[in-house]
Amino acid sequence: MSLSFRSDGRHSTARQAYVIEVGETQAGLVNRRADERFFTFIAASAAFRALDGHHFATPGAAELAARMLAGARRGAPSFRLVS
After folding, report:
1. What predicted TM-score, i.e. pTM, was given to this entire model?
2. I need a surface site. Which of 27, 37, 50, 57 has the fewest CB within 10 A?
3. Nearest to 54 by CA among 29, 18, 22
4. Burial of 40 (0-12, 13-18, 19+ CB in 10 A)
5. Is the pLDDT of residue 22 over 50?
6. In what order do the strands lie in the sheet with 11-22?
7. pLDDT tens per residue, range 39-69
8. How far, in Å, CA of 12 to CA of 57, rounded?
9. Residue 41 and residue 32: Cα distance in Å, rounded?
């Protein structure tokens, strides 16, 4: 999470960011500004590009989507993202 400083010297949360990992693979990260409601996924690997730009209510929801995508690549039941 990054912080910005106000003119009075105190800090305020400017952005929240979380790394999303599947096993030991970095799938990407999600971030949101203080004025945004949803987290936006930014893919760190071509394998997770299908999630790039999707919005999630929580970082946990983004992690679940990344796990499902990785599982689909390994032969688990497939799914389709709807945005």
Report:
1. 0.72
2. 37
3. 29
4. middle
5. yes
6. 2-5, 11-22, 25-33, 39-43, 55-56
7. 999 999 999 999 999 999 999 999 999 999 9
8. 21
9. 9
